[in-house]
Amino acid sequence: MVLVLVIGDLHIPHRVHDLPLKFKKLLVPGKIQQILCTGNVCDRETYEYLRTVSPDVHVVRGDYDESSFPLSVTVAHSPIRIGVIHGHQSVPTGDLDSLNAIARQLDVDVLVSGHTHTFQAVEYDGRFFVNPGSATGAWIGTFNGDPTPSFALMDIQGPVVVTYVYQLIEGEVRVEKIEYRKEPEPVREAPRPTAMPQSIPSSPGPQHTQSVW
């Protein structure tokens, strides 16, 4: 079992000063093995905070990050392969067909993306797509009102990914559970001969050969 924190679109300190306190109380060190961040961390202090939760942190570059984070990351928890992007590469934003094309290009079973500031976890075309939303509920120009602060925990157990979404609604943390199971790869049978031999040749008689010894 591997517990992976999926988080992103923090926008600290430009839009929000910090993570919600109730989220911080849940993100205690020693329980989470890995962090996948969809970007827009925006400051060094927030990145260092994530490293206190788990030293294994993978961050991709968001459209407001000035760091040298990569544009995409791929991690493997056999047999599950997970890809991470910020999400601005998807046109239209959040479009599942566009995200599915990126998932095929990265050759992953699960694609984590952000940018919309809205949580989503859905299976599509045999793959699993997770958007943790904005952990701080940072505002976004395309959203009417304030986004709901959210993040996700993925509990990976072999081919099964159990995703728990944590949302801060009216001051209380609410949790939902979504499960994805990777289907086993089809076994390809060896090609069978299309014609049978007409006769079976008889074994040759004993041959007298001189020993090499």
Would you kindly provide a written description of the structure presented here, covering whatever features stand out?
Helix content is 13%, strand content 32%. With 213 residues, the chain is mainly beta. A six-stranded mixed β-sheet has the order 3-2-1-9-10-11, with helices on one face. Strands 4-5-6-8-7 form a five-stranded mixed β-sheet, with helices on one face. A hairpin with a 2-residue loop joins strand 7 (119-124) and strand 8. The protein is globular and about 65 Å long. Residues 208-213 have low confidence and may be disordered.
Helical amount: 10-25%
DSSP, total strands: 11
Order of helices and strands: EHEHEEEHEEEEEE
In whole angstroms, the N-to-C terminal distance is 61 Å
Secondary structure category:
mainly beta
Which segments are poorly predicted (pLDDT under 50) over 5 or more consecutive residues?
208-213
Mean pLDDT: 87
Q: Assembly type of the shown chains?
A: single chain
The total of helices stands at: 3
Main sheet summary: 6 strands, mixed
Shape: globular
Biggest β-sheet: strands ordered side by side in the sheet: 3-2-1-9-10-11
Rg estimate, integer Å: 25 Å
Beta percentage is 25-35%
Précis, in short:
With 213 residues, the chain is mainly beta.
